[in-house]
Amino acid sequence: MSSHTQHTVEDNPEREPVTLPRLAEMKLNAEPIVMVTAYDYPSAGIAEEAGVDMVLCGDSAAMTVLGHSSTTPVSLDEMLVLARAVRRGLRTPMLVGDLPFGSYERSNDQAIESAMRYVKEAGCDVVKLERGGISVERARAIVRAGIPVMGHVGLTPQTATALGGFKAQGKTADQAVRIAEEALALQAAGCFSIVFEAVPTAISEVLVAKLSVPVIGIGAGVATDGQVLVWHDLLGIYGGRQAKFVKRYANLREEMLEGVGRYAREVRERAFPGAEHGYSIEPEELEAFRRYIEQESLPASFGGDWTATEI
Ligand code: KIV
Predict the structure, then answer these.
(1) Atom 4, ligand 1: residue with shortest CA distance
(2) Whole-angstrom distance, CA of residue 85 vs CA of residue 46
(3) For the residues 18-35, what does the mean pLDDT come to?
(4) pLDDT higher than threshold 50 for residue 1
(5) Residue 90 · residue 105 · CB < 8 Å
(6) I need a labelling partner for 56 at 20 to 30 A (CA). Which of 35, 42, 72, 170 fits?
(7) Alpha carbon nearest to ligand 1 atom 2, residue
(8) 56 C-alpha vs ligand 1 centroid, how far in Å?
(9) How many other C-beta atoms can be found within 10 angstroms of the C-beta atom of residue 104?
(10) Distance 6 CA to ligand 1 centre (A)
(11) CA distances from 177 to 35, 205, 287 (A)
């Protein structure tokens, strides 16, 4: 495989695109909903082929792919570049565009405008925003404009500083009541689903039963209607700090490091490229070229009519 190789999304003609009614049905039937984040085309293709239900182009990209220390610096324009790439790799999972910090809080108009950009410019099916409070109004406005919205409560990374850092929420009765109120308000505003992040298992168990929309958990225990993990966490690509709720299903960082290290060694030892990685030329063509190069009248530097050979 090379950068010139044509890739296509692996088509599973049996699988229907995941719709909002399908997600509601999954909650009713107690069928767990599988969601992952993705930020690029090849990862989206893997999510498609693995048969996940929902893909979130999350603002966690600020940390996992852009190298920031929090999610707040990433802009909507940056997120749109990533979401467009993810869209090209997906056919059946529902694509969620994550509204980044600063792209929806100011006014309902700003929120609708940003959500519409995700739909029109990146082909997202739905959008996600964080917190209760003013976000409830923003969610209602976006839903009224015709775009489905997913809420996100508990640990909301965009406002982690205000929450006292990246730590579990709802560990006191007061905090748990706030989470319950926010989730119920988001549901009443029309959110089709809500993410619970870093919420005690016993609290999410109670709330999942009170909510009619699917709850997708990340660090919220097994009672939620589905689970989401960050791509780089689940595959062990990200070397940064790992939250308690992360389970690694692979250790790709080690494999990548090993691969790049071996490549560097082989280049330095001239073990790569091998003969099999080069292109051949007919002997008579080579001979003619040599005769031309060796003629004495050849100027020190020469140009000419070069025709690119197809690789
Ligand atoms: O941005 C993100 O990856 C998220 C998930 C943690 C739900 O919001």
Answers:
(1) 58
(2) 13
(3) 98
(4) no
(5) no
(6) 170
(7) 58
(8) 7
(9) 26
(10) 30
(11) 26, 14, 83
Tokens 């988001």, located at residue: 186
Least confident of 10-14, 75-79, 204-208, 212-216: 10-14
* CB distance 193 to 216 below 8 Å: yes
Enclosing H/E stretch for 196? strand 193-197
Mean pLDDT, the chain, integer: 93
Instruction: Answer yes or no: is the C-beta of 48 below 6 A from any ligand 1 atom.
Output: no
Assess whether the C-beta atom of 195 lies below 6 angstroms from ligand 1: yes
Supply the residues annotated as catalytic.
Answer: 197
Helix segments in the chain, DSSP class H: 20-28, 41-50, 61-64, 76-89, 108-122, 134-144, 173-188, 201-210, 231-234, 252-268, 283-294
Could you count the other beta carbons within 10 Å of the beta carbon of residue 110?
16
| Rounded Cα–Cα distance for residues 244 and 219 (Å) | 8
Q: What sign does the dihedral 160-153-27-150 (CA atoms) show?
A: negative
Give dist(CA 233, CA 11) in Å, integer: 26
